[in-house]
Amino acid sequence: MAEQFHRAHRVAGIGPTIFATMTAEAVRTRAANLGQGFPDEDGPAEMLQIAADEILGGNNQYGPGPGVQALREAVARDRRRRWGQQVTADDVLITVGATEAIAASVLGLVDAGRQVVVLEPTYDAYSAAIGLAEATARPVRLRLAPDADGVRRWSLDRAAFAAACAEDATAAVILNSPHNPTGTVLDRDDLEFIADCVRGTGITVISDEVYERLVYDDDLHHTAFATLPGMAGQTVTISSAAKSFNVTGWKTGWAIAAPELLAAVTAAKQFLSYVGVTPLQPAVAWALDNADEWSENWDATLRDRRDRLAGVLRATGQEVLGSDGTYFLVSDIAPLGLGISGEEFCRLLPSAVGVAAIPVSAFVVADAADDPADPVRTLVRWTFCKNDTTLATAAERLSGDAADGTLADRIRTARSRLRS
Ligand code: PMP
Ligand code: GLN
Questions:
Q1: Average of pLDDT values for 124-133?
Q2: 100 in helix, strand or coil?
Q3: Per-residue pLDDT tens digits for 354-363
């Protein structure tokens, strides 16, 4: 029978995201969801009240194209105050989440057939947006090596990054620090190295800084890439309310760039969604100006939860890699001696143990789940942004008891049951 429709090749490789898939599996099995990175507790109460008042007060129609002025001003003020980024409301475009800002930046700034350098492991929306633009993702793997304390952590592979930037096809670079999924915060030296690679080359930098407020190591600070010498004119900075104020469902984000650069992003954005969501914007503006204390408390809470989760994972026999920011910790399941990939482990985990997590192989272009030589093969991402009850449930289930057997025992049993 002839096919009823043609699926465009630009979405050929795109299925449901790993996050949606694992959350559906967590719901089905009533697992504690340490997979998809969304908090299960609310942001600042006053911010929520303002949004409710705006809706009930009738602020429910299209807003201005670049966004509600009060939010554009608050974003600019926040960037100046927090990171020393010298921008004004004219440099700010409000978008439907950081996701739309990423898509509009790639669509507006990268021609079909060109390539975009991404740090790998790579957040899935980047390769999808690059595919929609009919360009190619050019991954540069972060290097994984032990630090002075013997803890394995990720860092920029400078030679590989410089080589990728030197290729003629490279039109843009997408940076992400603090980095999903590894929790890596690129230090100022690495960011300066990146700036040296792109300065004067015509390469545009798209800097995804959605985890800008979530840095836990006292010696590390978030650096806004656009503040490095010469970078303001060739950088689009992206962030959103989702991770700063626990409102992942509000889908309210922004792109920040010099007006000529921003015009290209706006050109694409206005025909993706037209405008952002009107009544939420005054609420986010309030939070940017007034929720510092809430942010500091949330940061301290997350740091504590990261440390607790790391302890639980270590006690099960896994190796925990260094993470200095974001919502995420990565573990290596290899020491459990199961001989299986992180992908298989994450498929078995919800029903066998009652916890959900995400395989890091989902964040790489190569088929790492099948490549025994690839260190990513046995890595698993866990989120610690969930409330104390969810985390305690997960901890209890991962630890097990004498009757349950160890984590490795239970995965082994589930696996052999499936195979028989
Ligand atoms: N970038 C990164 C690195 C993310 O982890 C996420 C998920 N929040 C996004 C962008 C998307 O953000 P938003 O929900 O605002 O679209
Ligand atoms: N950023 C979230 C994560 O990495 C997921 C967001 C999404 O599902 N699009 O878990």
A1: 94
A2: helix
A3: 999 999 999 9
- Establish whether residue 342 lines the binding site of ligand 1, counting it when its CB lies within 6 angstroms of any ligand atom: no
Low-confidence winner among 98-112, 259-273, 284-298, 360-374 (lowest mean pLDDT) = 360-374
Distance CA 311, CA 303 (A): 13
Do the Cβ atoms of 357 and 34 come closer than 8 Å? Answer: yes
Contact call for residues 83 and 224 (beta carbons, < 8 A): yes
Determine the distance separating the centroid of ligand 1 and the alpha carbon of 130, expressed in angstroms.
Answer: 16
Task: Specify the pTM.
Answer: 0.96
CA of 248 from ligand 2 middle (Å) equals: 9
Q: Which of 109, 110, 69, 61 is nearest to 92 (CA)?
A: 69
List, for residues 234-258, the tens digit of each pLDDT value: 999 999 999 999 999 999 999 999 9
- Distance from C-alpha of 62 to C-alpha of 278, rounded to nearest angstrom: 6
For ligand 2, atom 7: residue with the closest CA: 19
Structural domains in the chain, CATH included, are: 16-42+293-415 (3.90.1150.10), 45-290 (3.40.640.10)
Residue type, 245: F
Strand, coil or helix: 151: coil
